[in-house]
Every structure is written in structure tokens, then in C-alpha cells.
């Protein structure tokens, strides 16, 4: 009889503050508030204990409502949840960092978050418009601020106990090296796009060597073309194991040592994405060496402009 080794509750060690982080995470980049609340509640009920939010998603209050409902229903306690939110590009100036976290905590209805992440390394012109542009539609960056300046303000939030740890997102390895070199408090987590078509081994090796958890967003390829879930290598492995291609892609993510954030508004997909178990070694190797594609779906890493958020949504 084959033993099925579940990966649903794997905890990843982070050397920089929060202790262990659940590898299996639910992302809340969902445009509609009601749908966000329902999906977050379904994810809690399915067993997810790691949630990723952002002020830029414009729906932190809906996530907070779902968590409160889950706590009131006795499904979960706040201390069982690993909750992350992110500082938006227009709030990189040090004096804007603490107010931005406080506003996120108010919307989420929590005292503190477990990780506070700089959403992208690009500072935009500070202000209320999350997508500041000039008359010709060009992004207005803020040349008066460096990522190191913002990082120091983030470190102060940990000193003050306002968040348990801090992290970065949409960052290149070169830029990550710079921050790790100057950081007094190192990033606990780095959130980047990663899936079988964008494997990021070099970044993962660097993170592992420095006690940082690499958190993969779009682990299913964000349902974009070419579709990761239609890949023949993944489909063949899934068919051989009696699982779905999504379960294979997510198991691969955890088994190679990353956390992941998947998102769904479909309760069946949400349950399916939590029920993941270990792959045989040859399947792990085949995904690593047999797919041979290198495709980035989200160009946010080059510009700071989020590829998956429509420009008219998520404001406020
Ligand atoms: N830091 C950043 O800049 C950044 C950028 C993007 C995303 N993120 C974070 O990462 C999270 C995840 O990103 P993502 O939405 O791209 O993740 P993803 O899980 O790769 O893609 C989600 C898409 O896959 C579909 N899907 C989910 N489970 C499925 C399954 N079992 N079978 C078939 N299709 C399935 C969903 O559709 P259904 O709803 O129909 O299931 C949805 O269209 C976001 O919510 C956000 O928290 C961060």
C-alpha cells in the first residue's frame, strides 16, 4: 500500500521574526468585496491558515470580515492565522509607512499582521491616487526615495511590535541582495511570481541560504496563456497519480521548499488546492527538467505597475 504524505500543513522556517510560516497560502486579489468575503471564508473552512492581502487590492475590509466570521464561528483563532498585507507604491516615503500599516490593520480589524511586505520596489509619487500618471499616461515615480529608506521604516514597525516580520515582493535577485546586505532586520518572506514555467531556482537558493521564505504567487500561472494547467508534463503526472494538474503544480511548489499563494472563487477549486500531497522524486525532476519553458506572466517586476489589477479597480 502506498502512503500518501499530505503537504497541506507544511510549515516553512523563517529565520527573521515570524517563526514558521504555513506553506499553503490563499491570495485575496479578487476585485469584488462580496466575492472576496465568500472566497476567504471558503478558504478558511477548507483549512487555509495563511492569507495574503494588500492595500492595493481595495478589499482588506472584506478579508477582515471573513476572518472575524471564521473566528466567531469557532473555525479558527486569530493566532492560528498567518496574515500578510502589503505597503503600496505611493506610501514608500518613511513618514507614510506606519500610517499605511495602521490603516490596513483597521480595515482588516486586527491589531497586528504577521508579515508586512513592500508590494513592489518602485516608489510612486505619494498621494491618494494609487496609480499616479502624467498627462500622457506615464507612471509618476518618486525619485526622492530609495528602497533602503523604506526598508528602514519597515524595520521600525517590527521594533514597535506593529508587525511580526517584514518582506519584499516583485523584486529581482540583484535588488534583494542589496537589501539583505544593509538590513538590520532581514526579510522574512519574498513574494514573487513563480510556477513550473518560471522556476526561479537561483532566487530560491539565495532565499534558502539566508533563511528567507520564497512565496510563489501565480503558482497555477494565473490562468493565462500558455496555460500551466494544460501542460502535458503536469497533465501526465496528474493522470498517473489520480490528481489534478493544479494539485501537482501546488505540491511541486511546497515540496521544493516554497510557500505558495493561490486564488480561487470556486469552492471546489479552493478545497482541491488545499488537499495536496507529496509527489514521487521522478515527478519532481520531470517538472524541473522536462518542461523547459521560461515565461513571466506579470511584468510588475519591471515597472511596479501591477499586471493583474485592472487600472480602474482596487482604488481607495
Ligand atoms: N506581489 C504581487 O505583485 C502579486 C501579483 C499577483 C498576485 N499576487 C498574490 O498571489 C495570489 C495568487 O495569484 P494568482 O491569482 O495569479 O494565482 P493562481 O492560483 O496562479 O491563479 C488563479 C487562477 O487560477 C484559477 N484556479 C485556481 N485554482 C484552480 C484549480 N484547482 N483548477 C483550475 N483553475 C484554478 C482561478 O480561477 P477560479 O476562480 O475559477 O478557480 C484563477 O483564475 C493573489 O491573490 C495575490 O494575493 C501578488
Task: Walk me through what this model shows.
With 316 residues, this protein is an alpha/beta fold. The chain has a single domain, classed as NADP-dependent oxidoreductase domain (TIM Barrel). Helix content is 37%, strand content 13%. The chain contains 11 helices and 10 strands. The strands form 2 sheets. It has an 8-stranded parallel β-barrel, surrounded by 4 helices. Strand 3, helix 1 and strand 4 (50-52) form a beta-alpha-beta unit. Helix 1 (33-46) runs parallel beside helix 2 (60-72). The longest helix has 15 residues, at 94-108. The relative contact order is 0.16. Mean pLDDT is 95; it is low at 312-316. Residues 27-29, 52, 169-170, 191, 217-223, 229, 246, 261-266, 269, 272-273, 298, 300, 306, 308 line the site of NADP nicotinamide-adenine-dinucleotide phosphate. NADP nicotinamide-adenine-dinucleotide phosphate is lined by residues 27-29, 52, 169-170, 191, 217-223, 229, 246, 261-266, 269, 272-273, 298, 300, 306, 308.
